[in-house]
Design brief:
Number of strands: 0
Order of helices and strands: HHH
Strand content: under 5%
Largest sheet: none
Helix content: 55-70%
Distance between the termini: 11 Å
Radius of gyration: 11 Å
Length: 71
Amino acid sequence: MYIDEEITLRENLPAGLQRDFKQLQEYYDADDWFMFDIYMEEVEASVKAHYLAGKISISDLNCIFRKYGIA
């Protein structure tokens, strides 16, 4: 479980994803690994749903996966 701070996501990602990433960052910063892990599952599903709906590109998807260590 990690967030790669070196990877920057584009600023105009859908608002729902931005909220998800903000919440995930809060759990990460608080070292709340239990909530981070649980919420990460929701974030992964949300990212995939946004991709399948055509709201983010394959490039965005890959960048998000690398940043958040999603396999």
